[in-house]
Amino acid sequence: MVGLRGSDGALQRTWRDPALRRESDMMGFYVCITVLAALTLGRDHAGQPQNDVLGVVWGTTVGLALAHWFAVTVSARIIPNPDRHHTPVEEFTSQLLMASIVAVTTTLVVILLPPDVERLGARLTASGFIGLIVAWESRRGGTSWSRALAHGVLALTAATAIAMVKWFITY
């Protein structure tokens, strides 16, 4: 495989290659679901310091990226995959791109919101990414726009329900 040339090359390669896009999407789902789960702990209305919320977002993202890198690297060394078309580095790069996009977007949302809704905003951002990934990939897979949006809305609704239940339970 041709090596990746900077983040632009990695982004273009991930965008064009369905196998790398799938790796990227899986990491996006992992990060979003784990951020949702991690931010259900603690008190939403206590006005936690912004750094605590961002610590959960980035700690989750970096921790998952490192865990995934370890798993992919070790498994590739102990069980060779003859069907593999990408190196572990290419797969990890595509995963890291999505994890970074989720974390940076969530960080911007947290920074812009007042302290009493930062955690909810971060969870809703993660939910939104789940819906966006599902809708986008459904459409790219050939599904009509209306069906792709329906799939995305269904995923968004399920993820948002998880985010909102915690908000109302601790209110």
Helix run count? 6
The domain tally reads 1
Overall pLDDT = 82
Overall radius of gyration: 17 Å
Distance from N terminus to C terminus (CA atoms, Å) equals: 53 Å
Our estimate of the beta-strand percent is under 5%
- The share of residues in helices is over 70%
**Rough shape?**
globular
Instruction: Characterize the biggest β-sheet.
Output: none
Number of strands: 0
Low-confidence stretches: none
Order of helices and strands: HHHHHH
Q: What structural class is derived from the secondary structure elements?
A: mainly alpha
What do these coordinates show?
- The chain is mostly helical and 171 residues long.
- The protein has one domain.
- The protein contains 6 helices and no strands.
- The chain has helices at residues 6-16, 18-38, 50-78, 88-112, 118-140, 145-169.
- The radius of gyration is 17 Å and the shape is globular.
Helix/strand layout:
Elements: H1 6-16, H2 18-38, H3 50-78, H4 88-112, H5 118-140, H6 145-169
Helix pairs in contact: 1-2, 1-4, 2-3, 2-4, 2-5, 3-4, 4-5, 5-6
Keywords summarizing the entry:
mainly alpha; 171 residues; 78% helix; single chain
